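Field reference: sequence -> structure
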Amino acid sequence: MFDYLQYLSVLFLILFGMIIHKYEDKYPLEKFKRLKTFKFDMISIMISTLFVLFILDFLLNENIISFINNTFSLGESISEWPSYMCLIMALIVGDFGYYLTHRFLHLRQMWNTHQFHHSTINIYWFSGLRTSFINSLLIRIPYLIGLQMFEISYEIVSAAGIFLLVINFWIHSNLNLKYDKLLSYIFITPNFHRLHHVNDEQVAGCNFGNIFSVWDHIFGTALISDDWKKSPKGEYISWKKFPRRIIGF
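Structure field:
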């Protein structure tokens, strides 16, 4: 069961990436050459991916899972809930935790942890994986807590990890979507998240969600606008600063 679901999830991730890549070429929100930063992106993303795999292996350790389950599980109170309802609620709880964690990472004291992710100048589907080791660890913990809270099986937890990568590809994609604005009242869309990466101080502190935008709307951090979508983003990171930025301190 695990191998089948895992391989199917990975296959879906690859196919989704290929589709997004194709449509970015056809319907770009911003026009730029992805190859311009290809070398830096590939090196940083490969290292980041190794970090992510290490983190997933660590977080899915039997002792870690057991501790989180014993601490947060709702146990018998959800024993009669259908599996799909448990999974939906787990993602909702995890996503709210992500929103809070993301806002925490934007505090001055934590910015070094998150800064590497915001260094991306040309944002496209694969660039969202540019993130520091500590950042990757912190943003995954809320989802793991949510999944254990609602007694989601190990196999589904692994597939959920792939699903979150798909979400990462989606929200960082360089796509000009017809219904982006409409969808952004409920879900995080490419343009909605792109505003979060804009350097302009007028839009600083907006759009922190990952799956659902409702948290931003509830807590007053939502911004839906076309005015800044092509504004400058990111910053140049020298190779000298690279080791420290990718670790996150």
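Note: The longest helix spans residues 2-26.
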